[in-house]
Amino acid sequence: MLFVCTAHIHWDPEYCDVKVVQTLMLLSEIKTTMEDAIQKHRPNSNLPIDCTSVPLVLCGDFNSLPDSGKIKFIIIINNNNFFFCFFFQRCN
Question: Is 61 annotated as catalytic?
Answer without folding.
Answer: yes
